[in-house]
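Table S7 (text form). Paired inputs.
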Amino acid sequence: MSRVSLSASIGPAQPRAGGWGVLFAGIWLFYLLSPLQAGWQRRDTVTGWIGMVAVLVFAAVYLVVFVAMRFRPPGSPFRFRPLRDRSLALGALAGETALGVLICATVGQAGTATAVYIAVTAVMCLTTFWAWSYAAAVAAAAYAATSTVPGWHADGSIVFGTLVATLAVWGISQAINRNIDLVAAREENARLMVEEERNRFARDLHDILGHSLTVITVKAELANRLVDIDLDRTKAELADLERLSRDALADVRRAVEGYRELTLPGELARARTALAAAEIDAELPNSTDAVPTEHRELFAWTVREGITNVLRHSDARRCCVRLTARQVEIRDDGRGPSETPGGHGLLGLRERASAVGATVVTEALQPGFSLKVVV
Protein backbone atom coordinates (compact mmCIF):
# COMPACT_ATOMS: atom_id res chain seq x y z
CA MET A 1 0.00 0.00 0.00
CA SER A 2 1.11 3.53 -0.71
CA ARG A 3 2.02 5.77 2.17
CA VAL A 4 1.91 9.55 2.23
CA SER A 5 3.52 11.64 4.91
CA LEU A 6 1.02 13.75 6.78
CA SER A 7 3.38 16.66 6.38
CA ALA A 8 2.35 16.77 2.74
CA SER A 9 -0.91 18.38 3.85
CA ILE A 10 1.04 21.50 4.63
CA GLY A 11 2.21 21.83 1.06
CA PRO A 12 5.00 24.00 -0.28
CA ALA A 13 5.26 27.59 0.77
CA GLN A 14 3.22 29.94 -1.31
CA PRO A 15 5.28 32.15 -3.62
CA ARG A 16 5.56 35.68 -2.38
CA ALA A 17 5.76 38.85 -4.39
CA GLY A 18 8.30 41.08 -2.76
CA GLY A 19 10.14 44.19 -3.89
CA TRP A 20 12.04 42.41 -6.65
CA GLY A 21 9.05 42.58 -8.98
CA VAL A 22 8.71 46.33 -8.52
CA LEU A 23 12.44 46.75 -9.09
CA PHE A 24 12.20 44.68 -12.27
CA ALA A 25 9.36 46.90 -13.52
CA GLY A 26 11.31 50.01 -12.59
CA ILE A 27 14.33 48.94 -14.66
CA TRP A 28 12.25 49.06 -17.84
CA LEU A 29 11.47 52.73 -17.18
CA PHE A 30 14.99 53.29 -18.55
CA TYR A 31 13.42 53.89 -21.97
CA LEU A 32 11.63 56.94 -20.62
CA LEU A 33 15.00 58.65 -20.42
CA SER A 34 14.62 59.56 -24.08
CA PRO A 35 11.55 61.81 -23.63
CA LEU A 36 12.97 63.05 -20.33
CA GLN A 37 16.17 64.10 -22.13
CA ALA A 38 14.13 65.77 -24.87
CA GLY A 39 12.32 67.77 -22.20
CA TRP A 40 15.62 68.70 -20.57
CA GLN A 41 16.88 70.06 -23.88
CA ARG A 42 13.86 72.40 -23.81
CA ARG A 43 14.32 73.38 -20.19
CA ASP A 44 14.41 77.02 -21.19
CA THR A 45 10.72 76.76 -22.14
CA VAL A 46 7.56 76.08 -20.15
CA THR A 47 6.65 73.14 -22.39
CA GLY A 48 9.99 71.51 -21.66
CA TRP A 49 9.36 71.58 -17.92
CA ILE A 50 5.78 70.42 -18.39
CA GLY A 51 7.10 67.52 -20.47
CA MET A 52 9.65 66.47 -17.83
CA VAL A 53 7.08 66.61 -15.03
CA ALA A 54 4.64 64.64 -17.20
CA VAL A 55 7.30 61.93 -17.79
CA LEU A 56 7.93 61.59 -14.05
CA VAL A 57 4.21 61.42 -13.26
CA PHE A 58 3.76 58.91 -16.10
CA ALA A 59 6.47 56.66 -14.60
CA ALA A 60 4.94 56.97 -11.11
CA VAL A 61 1.45 56.03 -12.35
CA TYR A 62 2.90 53.04 -14.22
CA LEU A 63 4.59 51.76 -11.05
CA VAL A 64 1.45 52.36 -8.96
CA VAL A 65 -0.60 50.30 -11.43
CA PHE A 66 2.01 47.52 -11.30
CA VAL A 67 1.99 47.45 -7.50
CA ALA A 68 -1.84 47.55 -7.35
CA MET A 69 -2.06 44.68 -9.85
CA ARG A 70 0.21 42.61 -7.60
CA PHE A 71 -1.79 43.26 -4.44
CA ARG A 72 -3.40 40.16 -2.94
CA PRO A 73 -4.72 38.92 0.43
CA PRO A 74 -2.02 37.80 2.89
CA GLY A 75 -0.96 34.19 2.38
CA SER A 76 -2.37 33.88 -1.14
CA PRO A 77 -0.08 33.37 -4.13
CA PHE A 78 0.69 36.13 -6.59
CA ARG A 79 -1.45 35.88 -9.68
CA PHE A 80 -1.09 38.13 -12.72
CA ARG A 81 -4.61 39.36 -13.35
CA PRO A 82 -6.25 42.64 -14.44
CA LEU A 83 -7.13 45.12 -11.73
CA ARG A 84 -10.38 44.07 -10.05
CA ASP A 85 -11.41 47.65 -9.37
CA ARG A 86 -12.75 48.65 -12.79
CA SER A 87 -12.89 52.37 -12.04
CA LEU A 88 -9.27 52.31 -10.90
CA ALA A 89 -8.22 50.31 -13.97
CA LEU A 90 -9.98 52.58 -16.45
CA GLY A 91 -8.86 55.71 -14.60
CA ALA A 92 -5.22 54.60 -14.57
CA LEU A 93 -5.28 53.66 -18.24
CA ALA A 94 -6.97 56.91 -19.22
CA GLY A 95 -4.46 58.87 -17.11
CA GLU A 96 -1.50 57.09 -18.72
CA THR A 97 -2.91 57.74 -22.19
CA ALA A 98 -3.53 61.41 -21.45
CA LEU A 99 -0.02 61.81 -20.02
CA GLY A 100 1.43 60.07 -23.10
CA VAL A 101 -0.33 62.51 -25.39
CA LEU A 102 0.84 65.43 -23.23
CA ILE A 103 4.44 64.19 -23.33
CA CYS A 104 4.33 63.87 -27.13
CA ALA A 105 2.88 67.38 -27.40
CA THR A 106 5.58 68.93 -25.21
CA VAL A 107 8.79 67.04 -26.06
CA GLY A 108 8.08 65.86 -29.61
CA GLN A 109 8.50 62.50 -31.28
CA ALA A 110 10.61 61.15 -28.39
CA GLY A 111 7.37 61.02 -26.41
CA THR A 112 6.11 58.12 -28.55
CA ALA A 113 8.24 55.86 -26.32
CA THR A 114 5.31 56.03 -23.88
CA ALA A 115 3.20 53.93 -26.31
CA VAL A 116 4.93 50.75 -25.09
CA TYR A 117 4.14 51.52 -21.44
CA ILE A 118 0.52 52.41 -22.25
CA ALA A 119 0.08 49.05 -24.01
CA VAL A 120 1.63 47.19 -21.06
CA THR A 121 -0.65 49.13 -18.69
CA ALA A 122 -3.61 47.93 -20.78
CA VAL A 123 -2.50 44.33 -20.16
CA MET A 124 -2.40 45.03 -16.41
CA CYS A 125 -5.78 46.78 -16.37
CA LEU A 126 -7.96 45.00 -18.95
CA THR A 127 -8.96 41.50 -19.90
CA THR A 128 -7.14 39.84 -22.81
CA PHE A 129 -9.44 40.91 -25.66
CA TRP A 130 -9.69 44.53 -24.60
CA ALA A 131 -6.01 44.72 -23.68
CA TRP A 132 -4.94 43.57 -27.13
CA SER A 133 -7.47 45.83 -28.82
CA TYR A 134 -6.24 48.84 -26.86
CA ALA A 135 -2.58 47.98 -27.49
CA ALA A 136 -3.21 47.69 -31.24
CA ALA A 137 -5.02 51.03 -31.23
CA VAL A 138 -2.15 52.69 -29.33
CA ALA A 139 0.44 51.26 -31.76
CA ALA A 140 -1.59 52.41 -34.75
CA ALA A 141 -2.09 55.88 -33.27
CA ALA A 142 1.62 56.26 -32.49
CA TYR A 143 2.61 55.25 -36.02
CA ALA A 144 0.00 57.55 -37.53
CA ALA A 145 1.38 60.43 -35.45
CA THR A 146 4.94 59.82 -36.64
CA SER A 147 3.69 59.81 -40.23
CA THR A 148 1.46 62.89 -40.10
CA VAL A 149 2.81 65.33 -37.50
CA PRO A 150 4.98 67.98 -39.19
CA GLY A 151 8.65 67.62 -38.31
CA TRP A 152 8.29 63.97 -37.27
CA HIS A 153 9.56 61.07 -39.36
CA ALA A 154 7.64 57.85 -39.99
CA ASP A 155 8.72 55.14 -37.53
CA GLY A 156 7.37 51.64 -38.14
CA SER A 157 9.43 50.26 -35.26
CA ILE A 158 7.00 51.84 -32.79
CA VAL A 159 4.29 49.40 -33.93
CA PHE A 160 6.64 46.43 -33.67
CA GLY A 161 7.98 47.47 -30.25
CA THR A 162 4.53 48.13 -28.81
CA LEU A 163 3.03 44.85 -29.96
CA VAL A 164 6.09 42.80 -28.97
CA ALA A 165 6.07 44.34 -25.48
CA THR A 166 2.36 43.57 -25.21
CA LEU A 167 2.94 39.98 -26.29
CA ALA A 168 5.85 39.57 -23.86
CA VAL A 169 3.94 40.86 -20.83
CA TRP A 170 0.80 38.94 -21.78
CA GLY A 171 2.84 35.73 -22.25
CA ILE A 172 4.57 36.22 -18.89
CA SER A 173 1.19 36.75 -17.24
CA GLN A 174 -0.15 33.52 -18.72
CA ALA A 175 2.95 31.59 -17.64
CA ILE A 176 2.72 32.94 -14.09
CA ASN A 177 -0.96 32.07 -13.80
CA ARG A 178 -0.50 28.57 -15.19
CA ASN A 179 2.40 27.89 -12.86
CA ILE A 180 0.28 29.04 -9.93
CA ASP A 181 -2.55 26.75 -11.09
CA LEU A 182 -0.09 23.86 -11.40
CA VAL A 183 1.24 24.45 -7.87
CA ALA A 184 -2.33 24.65 -6.55
CA ALA A 185 -3.27 21.42 -8.35
CA ARG A 186 -0.24 19.63 -6.90
CA GLU A 187 -1.07 20.83 -3.40
CA GLU A 188 -4.68 19.72 -3.81
CA ASN A 189 -3.55 16.29 -5.05
CA ALA A 190 -1.22 16.00 -2.06
CA ARG A 191 -4.06 16.96 0.29
CA LEU A 192 -6.40 14.41 -1.29
CA MET A 193 -3.73 11.71 -1.06
CA VAL A 194 -3.24 12.46 2.63
CA GLU A 195 -7.00 12.38 3.18
CA GLU A 196 -7.26 9.09 1.30
CA GLU A 197 -4.41 7.65 3.36
CA ARG A 198 -6.08 8.73 6.60
CA ASN A 199 -9.36 7.12 5.52
CA ARG A 200 -7.53 3.94 4.50
CA PHE A 201 -5.72 3.73 7.81
CA ALA A 202 -8.93 4.35 9.79
CA ARG A 203 -10.74 1.70 7.75
CA ASP A 204 -7.96 -0.85 8.05
CA LEU A 205 -7.51 -0.24 11.76
CA HIS A 206 -11.23 -0.75 12.27
CA ASP A 207 -11.18 -3.94 10.21
CA ILE A 208 -8.18 -5.37 12.07
CA LEU A 209 -8.90 -4.38 15.66
CA GLY A 210 -12.67 -4.68 15.34
CA HIS A 211 -12.41 -8.34 14.44
CA SER A 212 -9.53 -9.22 16.75
CA LEU A 213 -10.91 -7.48 19.83
CA THR A 214 -14.34 -9.00 19.24
CA VAL A 215 -12.85 -12.50 19.19
CA ILE A 216 -10.73 -11.74 22.26
CA THR A 217 -13.82 -10.47 24.10
CA VAL A 218 -15.80 -13.59 23.22
CA LYS A 219 -13.00 -15.88 24.37
CA ALA A 220 -12.52 -13.90 27.57
CA GLU A 221 -16.24 -14.30 28.37
CA LEU A 222 -16.03 -18.00 27.62
CA ALA A 223 -12.94 -18.42 29.82
CA ASN A 224 -14.70 -16.56 32.63
CA ARG A 225 -17.64 -18.95 32.42
CA LEU A 226 -15.40 -22.03 32.33
CA VAL A 227 -13.00 -21.09 35.12
CA ASP A 228 -15.01 -22.90 37.78
CA ILE A 229 -16.19 -25.71 35.49
CA ASP A 230 -13.36 -26.89 33.26
CA LEU A 231 -9.90 -25.73 34.25
CA ASP A 232 -8.17 -27.37 31.31
CA ARG A 233 -10.56 -25.74 28.82
CA THR A 234 -10.07 -22.42 30.58
CA LYS A 235 -6.30 -22.70 30.22
CA ALA A 236 -6.72 -23.48 26.53
CA GLU A 237 -8.94 -20.42 26.03
CA LEU A 238 -6.48 -18.22 27.90
CA ALA A 239 -3.69 -19.51 25.69
CA ASP A 240 -5.79 -18.61 22.68
CA LEU A 241 -6.36 -15.17 24.17
CA GLU A 242 -2.61 -14.65 24.44
CA ARG A 243 -2.08 -15.80 20.87
CA LEU A 244 -4.88 -13.65 19.50
CA SER A 245 -3.66 -10.57 21.32
CA ARG A 246 -0.16 -11.09 19.92
CA ASP A 247 -1.63 -11.55 16.44
CA ALA A 248 -3.65 -8.37 16.82
CA LEU A 249 -0.56 -6.45 17.90
CA ALA A 250 1.36 -7.81 14.90
CA ASP A 251 -1.51 -6.82 12.57
CA VAL A 252 -1.51 -3.28 13.93
CA ARG A 253 2.24 -3.01 13.45
CA ARG A 254 1.96 -4.22 9.88
CA ALA A 255 -0.88 -1.79 9.21
CA VAL A 256 1.22 1.10 10.51
CA GLU A 257 4.06 -0.01 8.26
CA GLY A 258 1.66 0.05 5.33
CA TYR A 259 1.29 -3.66 4.56
CA ARG A 260 -0.05 -6.88 5.99
CA GLU A 261 -0.82 -10.40 4.86
CA LEU A 262 -4.49 -11.29 4.44
CA THR A 263 -5.54 -14.68 3.08
CA LEU A 264 -8.94 -16.19 2.51
CA PRO A 265 -8.04 -19.59 4.07
CA GLY A 266 -6.60 -17.78 7.08
CA GLU A 267 -9.79 -15.76 7.58
CA LEU A 268 -11.92 -18.89 7.29
CA ALA A 269 -9.76 -20.59 9.90
CA ARG A 270 -10.11 -17.58 12.21
CA ALA A 271 -13.84 -17.56 11.61
CA ARG A 272 -14.13 -21.23 12.54
CA THR A 273 -12.23 -20.65 15.80
CA ALA A 274 -14.17 -17.50 16.70
CA LEU A 275 -17.59 -18.98 15.96
CA ALA A 276 -16.78 -22.11 17.96
CA ALA A 277 -15.69 -19.97 20.91
CA ALA A 278 -18.98 -18.07 20.72
CA GLU A 279 -20.88 -21.38 20.58
CA ILE A 280 -22.31 -20.58 17.17
CA ASP A 281 -22.83 -23.50 14.80
CA ALA A 282 -20.69 -22.80 11.74
CA GLU A 283 -21.06 -24.04 8.19
CA LEU A 284 -17.84 -23.07 6.45
CA PRO A 285 -16.32 -24.16 3.12
CA ASN A 286 -13.45 -26.59 3.37
CA SER A 287 -11.70 -25.29 0.28
CA THR A 288 -11.14 -21.94 -1.43
CA ASP A 289 -9.82 -23.37 -4.68
CA ALA A 290 -12.83 -22.15 -6.66
CA VAL A 291 -12.09 -18.49 -5.90
CA PRO A 292 -9.85 -16.73 -8.46
CA THR A 293 -6.68 -15.15 -7.13
CA GLU A 294 -7.80 -11.60 -7.93
CA HIS A 295 -10.91 -12.01 -5.74
CA ARG A 296 -9.33 -13.66 -2.72
CA GLU A 297 -8.29 -10.54 -0.83
CA LEU A 298 -11.73 -8.91 -1.22
CA PHE A 299 -13.47 -12.13 -0.16
CA ALA A 300 -11.12 -12.41 2.83
CA TRP A 301 -12.09 -8.89 3.98
CA THR A 302 -15.75 -9.80 3.45
CA VAL A 303 -15.42 -12.89 5.66
CA ARG A 304 -13.62 -10.87 8.32
CA GLU A 305 -16.25 -8.11 8.36
CA GLY A 306 -19.19 -10.53 8.16
CA ILE A 307 -17.97 -12.80 10.98
CA THR A 308 -17.14 -9.77 13.12
CA ASN A 309 -20.71 -8.51 12.73
CA VAL A 310 -22.12 -11.94 13.51
CA LEU A 311 -20.09 -12.15 16.72
CA ARG A 312 -20.69 -8.58 17.79
CA HIS A 313 -24.27 -7.83 16.84
CA SER A 314 -26.35 -10.80 15.78
CA ASP A 315 -26.93 -13.08 18.82
CA ALA A 316 -27.09 -15.79 16.17
CA ARG A 317 -27.05 -19.53 16.83
CA ARG A 318 -26.01 -20.51 13.32
CA CYS A 319 -23.76 -18.97 10.69
CA CYS A 320 -23.07 -20.08 7.13
CA VAL A 321 -20.32 -18.90 4.77
CA ARG A 322 -20.78 -19.72 1.09
CA LEU A 323 -18.07 -19.28 -1.54
CA THR A 324 -18.24 -19.39 -5.32
CA ALA A 325 -15.94 -18.07 -8.00
CA ARG A 326 -17.92 -14.82 -8.23
CA GLN A 327 -19.37 -14.19 -4.80
CA VAL A 328 -19.08 -14.75 -1.06
CA GLU A 329 -22.00 -14.71 1.39
CA ILE A 330 -22.13 -14.71 5.19
CA ARG A 331 -25.60 -15.63 6.45
CA ASP A 332 -26.81 -15.99 10.04
CA ASP A 333 -30.09 -16.52 11.89
CA GLY A 334 -29.67 -13.61 14.31
CA ARG A 335 -31.03 -10.09 14.32
CA GLY A 336 -28.41 -8.56 12.02
CA PRO A 337 -25.84 -5.85 12.66
CA SER A 338 -26.78 -2.69 14.50
CA GLU A 339 -24.18 -0.82 12.47
CA THR A 340 -25.67 1.70 10.06
CA PRO A 341 -24.87 1.43 6.34
CA GLY A 342 -22.51 4.37 6.75
CA GLY A 343 -20.49 2.70 9.52
CA HIS A 344 -16.78 2.13 9.14
CA GLY A 345 -16.97 -1.62 8.61
CA LEU A 346 -19.55 -1.85 5.83
CA LEU A 347 -18.41 1.47 4.35
CA GLY A 348 -14.84 0.22 4.16
CA LEU A 349 -16.02 -3.02 2.56
CA ARG A 350 -18.04 -1.09 -0.03
CA GLU A 351 -14.97 0.97 -0.89
CA ARG A 352 -12.86 -2.15 -1.35
CA ALA A 353 -15.55 -3.80 -3.47
CA SER A 354 -16.08 -0.71 -5.62
CA ALA A 355 -12.35 -0.52 -6.34
CA VAL A 356 -12.51 -3.88 -8.17
CA GLY A 357 -15.98 -3.51 -9.68
CA ALA A 358 -17.80 -5.63 -7.12
CA THR A 359 -21.05 -4.94 -5.25
CA VAL A 360 -21.94 -5.29 -1.57
CA VAL A 361 -25.46 -6.60 -0.96
CA THR A 362 -27.04 -6.66 2.51
CA GLU A 363 -30.40 -8.31 3.18
CA ALA A 364 -32.52 -8.68 6.28
CA LEU A 365 -33.86 -12.22 6.56
CA GLN A 366 -36.69 -13.69 8.61
CA PRO A 367 -34.88 -14.36 10.83
CA GLY A 368 -31.30 -13.41 10.22
CA PHE A 369 -29.09 -11.30 8.05
CA SER A 370 -27.10 -11.80 4.86
CA LEU A 371 -23.94 -10.00 3.77
CA LYS A 372 -22.92 -10.74 0.21
CA VAL A 373 -20.21 -9.44 -2.14
CA VAL A 374 -20.77 -10.15 -5.80
CA VAL A 375 -18.15 -9.58 -8.49
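Next pair, protein 2 of 2.
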Amino acid sequence: MTPRQLILNIQPEAEPRFDNFLPGDNLELLLALDTLARAELQEFVVYIWGAPGSGRSHLLHATHAQAHGLARFCTKGIDLPEEMPRLLVVDDVDALDAEAQIRLFDLINQARDGAGTVLAAGPCAPAQLGLREDLATRLAWGLVFGLRPLNEADRATAIKERAAARGLALPDEVARYLLTYGRRDLPSLLATVDALDTYSMSLKRPVTLALVREVLSDKVTK
Protein backbone atom coordinates (compact mmCIF):
# COMPACT_ATOMS: atom_id res chain seq x y z
CA MET A 1 0.00 0.00 0.00
CA THR A 2 1.42 3.38 -0.98
CA PRO A 3 1.63 6.40 1.36
CA ARG A 4 -1.08 8.04 -0.78
CA GLN A 5 -3.45 5.11 -0.25
CA LEU A 6 -2.76 5.22 3.47
CA ILE A 7 -3.59 8.93 3.64
CA LEU A 8 -6.83 8.39 1.73
CA ASN A 9 -7.72 5.52 4.06
CA ILE A 10 -7.27 7.57 7.25
CA GLN A 11 -10.46 7.28 9.25
CA PRO A 12 -12.53 10.40 9.95
CA GLU A 13 -11.70 12.41 13.01
CA ALA A 14 -13.43 11.67 16.29
CA GLU A 15 -16.76 13.41 16.73
CA PRO A 16 -16.13 17.16 16.88
CA ARG A 17 -16.16 18.43 20.47
CA PHE A 18 -14.95 21.54 22.22
CA ASP A 19 -12.33 19.55 24.11
CA ASN A 20 -10.68 18.19 20.95
CA PHE A 21 -10.37 21.60 19.30
CA LEU A 22 -7.02 23.33 19.70
CA PRO A 23 -8.04 26.97 20.28
CA GLY A 24 -4.75 28.80 19.91
CA ASP A 25 -5.75 32.47 19.80
CA ASN A 26 -9.44 31.57 19.47
CA LEU A 27 -10.21 30.94 23.13
CA GLU A 28 -12.76 33.79 23.30
CA LEU A 29 -14.70 32.20 20.46
CA LEU A 30 -14.59 28.75 22.07
CA LEU A 31 -15.92 30.13 25.35
CA ALA A 32 -18.69 32.03 23.54
CA LEU A 33 -19.81 28.88 21.72
CA ASP A 34 -19.80 26.85 24.92
CA THR A 35 -22.00 29.52 26.51
CA LEU A 36 -24.25 29.50 23.43
CA ALA A 37 -24.66 25.71 23.55
CA ARG A 38 -25.82 26.06 27.18
CA ALA A 39 -28.40 28.68 26.09
CA GLU A 40 -26.70 31.32 28.22
CA LEU A 41 -25.38 33.63 25.48
CA GLN A 42 -27.48 36.76 25.06
CA GLU A 43 -27.06 37.07 21.28
CA PHE A 44 -29.49 36.27 18.48
CA VAL A 45 -26.87 35.80 15.75
CA VAL A 46 -23.24 34.62 15.85
CA TYR A 47 -21.13 34.39 12.70
CA ILE A 48 -17.76 32.62 12.30
CA TRP A 49 -15.53 32.90 9.28
CA GLY A 50 -12.29 31.23 8.34
CA ALA A 51 -10.48 29.50 5.50
CA PRO A 52 -11.07 25.80 4.73
CA GLY A 53 -9.30 23.71 7.36
CA SER A 54 -9.50 26.48 9.96
CA GLY A 55 -11.90 24.51 12.14
CA ARG A 56 -15.11 26.46 11.63
CA SER A 57 -17.16 23.37 10.70
CA HIS A 58 -15.65 21.48 13.65
CA LEU A 59 -16.86 24.23 15.99
CA LEU A 60 -20.35 24.31 14.48
CA HIS A 61 -20.74 20.54 14.84
CA ALA A 62 -19.39 20.69 18.39
CA THR A 63 -21.87 23.41 19.34
CA HIS A 64 -24.73 21.46 17.76
CA ALA A 65 -23.75 18.32 19.69
CA GLN A 66 -23.30 20.21 22.96
CA ALA A 67 -26.82 21.66 22.65
CA HIS A 68 -28.19 18.15 23.32
CA GLY A 69 -30.92 17.94 20.70
CA LEU A 70 -32.10 21.54 21.04
CA ALA A 71 -30.31 22.67 17.87
CA ARG A 72 -30.88 22.07 14.18
CA PHE A 73 -27.92 21.75 11.82
CA CYS A 74 -28.07 22.75 8.15
CA THR A 75 -25.36 23.18 5.54
CA LYS A 76 -25.46 25.18 2.31
CA GLY A 77 -29.04 26.14 3.08
CA ILE A 78 -30.39 22.61 2.66
CA ASP A 79 -33.44 21.87 4.85
CA LEU A 80 -33.63 25.29 6.47
CA PRO A 81 -36.75 25.28 8.66
CA GLU A 82 -39.56 27.79 8.39
CA GLU A 83 -39.80 28.25 12.16
CA MET A 84 -36.80 29.24 14.23
CA PRO A 85 -35.60 26.52 16.66
CA ARG A 86 -33.83 27.41 19.91
CA LEU A 87 -30.51 27.16 18.07
CA LEU A 88 -30.11 27.06 14.30
CA VAL A 89 -26.63 26.12 13.04
CA VAL A 90 -25.95 26.95 9.38
CA ASP A 91 -22.63 26.07 7.75
CA ASP A 92 -21.37 27.23 4.33
CA VAL A 93 -23.68 30.24 4.08
CA ASP A 94 -21.73 31.37 1.01
CA ALA A 95 -23.43 28.51 -0.90
CA LEU A 96 -27.01 29.62 -0.13
CA ASP A 97 -29.19 29.95 -3.21
CA ALA A 98 -31.66 32.82 -3.60
CA GLU A 99 -34.53 30.99 -1.87
CA ALA A 100 -32.37 29.87 1.04
CA GLN A 101 -31.07 33.42 1.50
CA ILE A 102 -34.60 34.72 1.87
CA ARG A 103 -35.44 31.98 4.36
CA LEU A 104 -32.34 32.60 6.47
CA PHE A 105 -33.11 36.33 6.41
CA ASP A 106 -36.57 35.57 7.85
CA LEU A 107 -35.14 33.18 10.46
CA ILE A 108 -32.66 35.79 11.70
CA ASN A 109 -35.57 38.21 12.06
CA GLN A 110 -37.39 35.58 14.13
CA ALA A 111 -34.27 35.15 16.25
CA ARG A 112 -34.06 38.91 16.76
CA ASP A 113 -37.62 38.79 18.08
CA GLY A 114 -36.60 36.25 20.71
CA ALA A 115 -37.23 32.90 19.03
CA GLY A 116 -33.64 31.62 19.36
CA THR A 117 -30.13 32.09 18.06
CA VAL A 118 -28.62 31.63 14.59
CA LEU A 119 -25.04 30.36 14.50
CA ALA A 120 -23.65 30.61 10.96
CA ALA A 121 -20.28 30.18 9.28
CA GLY A 122 -18.60 30.85 5.97
CA PRO A 123 -15.17 31.41 4.41
CA CYS A 124 -15.03 35.19 4.77
CA ALA A 125 -16.54 38.15 6.60
CA PRO A 126 -20.26 38.83 5.95
CA ALA A 127 -19.68 41.76 3.61
CA GLN A 128 -17.47 39.62 1.33
CA LEU A 129 -19.83 36.65 1.04
CA GLY A 130 -21.62 37.84 -2.11
CA LEU A 131 -25.02 37.35 -0.48
CA ARG A 132 -28.00 39.70 -0.49
CA GLU A 133 -26.95 42.91 1.18
CA ASP A 134 -29.75 42.75 3.76
CA LEU A 135 -28.78 39.17 4.75
CA ALA A 136 -25.08 40.04 4.97
CA THR A 137 -25.99 42.98 7.19
CA ARG A 138 -27.99 40.76 9.51
CA LEU A 139 -25.21 38.19 9.76
CA ALA A 140 -23.00 41.01 11.05
CA TRP A 141 -25.56 42.25 13.60
CA GLY A 142 -24.35 40.04 16.44
CA LEU A 143 -21.00 38.53 17.35
CA VAL A 144 -18.61 38.05 14.43
CA PHE A 145 -15.46 35.98 14.88
CA GLY A 146 -12.66 35.56 12.35
CA LEU A 147 -10.82 32.34 13.17
CA ARG A 148 -7.16 33.07 13.75
CA PRO A 149 -4.80 30.47 12.30
CA LEU A 150 -2.68 28.45 14.66
CA ASN A 151 0.85 29.72 15.04
CA GLU A 152 3.89 27.50 14.55
CA ALA A 153 4.13 26.56 18.22
CA ASP A 154 0.43 25.60 18.39
CA ARG A 155 0.69 23.42 15.29
CA ALA A 156 3.82 21.77 16.64
CA THR A 157 1.98 21.00 19.87
CA ALA A 158 -0.95 19.56 17.92
CA ILE A 159 1.09 17.15 15.83
CA LYS A 160 3.17 16.02 18.81
CA GLU A 161 0.01 15.36 20.83
CA ARG A 162 -1.46 13.43 17.90
CA ALA A 163 1.70 11.34 17.62
CA ALA A 164 1.77 10.68 21.37
CA ALA A 165 -1.88 9.62 21.32
CA ARG A 166 -0.96 6.98 18.72
CA GLY A 167 2.07 5.84 20.73
CA LEU A 168 4.38 7.29 18.08
CA ALA A 169 7.72 8.83 19.01
CA LEU A 170 7.97 11.78 16.64
CA PRO A 171 11.53 13.13 16.45
CA ASP A 172 11.85 16.91 16.64
CA GLU A 173 13.51 17.02 13.22
CA VAL A 174 10.51 15.23 11.69
CA ALA A 175 8.08 17.61 13.37
CA ARG A 176 10.05 20.59 12.03
CA TYR A 177 10.11 19.07 8.54
CA LEU A 178 6.34 18.54 8.56
CA LEU A 179 5.74 22.13 9.65
CA THR A 180 8.07 23.45 6.96
CA TYR A 181 7.17 21.27 3.96
CA GLY A 182 3.76 19.77 4.80
CA ARG A 183 0.34 21.28 4.20
CA ARG A 184 -0.29 24.30 6.41
CA ASP A 185 -3.81 23.39 7.55
CA LEU A 186 -4.09 21.36 10.75
CA PRO A 187 -6.35 18.53 9.45
CA SER A 188 -3.82 17.74 6.71
CA LEU A 189 -0.94 17.81 9.18
CA LEU A 190 -2.74 15.42 11.53
CA ALA A 191 -3.65 13.11 8.64
CA THR A 192 0.03 13.04 7.67
CA VAL A 193 1.01 12.04 11.22
CA ASP A 194 -1.54 9.22 11.06
CA ALA A 195 -0.20 8.11 7.67
CA LEU A 196 3.38 8.20 8.91
CA ASP A 197 2.49 5.99 11.85
CA THR A 198 0.60 3.47 9.71
CA TYR A 199 3.24 3.46 6.97
CA SER A 200 6.12 3.02 9.39
CA MET A 201 4.36 0.08 11.07
CA SER A 202 3.55 -1.57 7.72
CA LEU A 203 7.22 -1.39 6.71
CA LYS A 204 8.54 -1.99 10.24
CA ARG A 205 10.68 1.13 9.84
CA PRO A 206 11.11 3.95 12.36
CA VAL A 207 9.74 7.40 11.55
CA THR A 208 12.69 9.27 10.07
CA LEU A 209 13.19 12.19 7.70
CA ALA A 210 13.58 9.71 4.84
CA LEU A 211 10.20 8.17 5.65
CA VAL A 212 8.40 11.50 5.92
CA ARG A 213 9.91 12.59 2.60
CA GLU A 214 8.46 9.46 0.99
CA VAL A 215 5.00 10.23 2.33
CA LEU A 216 5.03 13.92 1.42
CA SER A 217 6.48 13.23 -2.03
CA ASP A 218 3.78 10.66 -2.72
CA LYS A 219 1.08 13.15 -1.62
CA VAL A 220 2.41 15.69 -4.13
CA THR A 221 2.92 13.40 -7.13
CA LYS A 222 -0.11 11.12 -6.97
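The chain has two domains: 23-146, 151-221.
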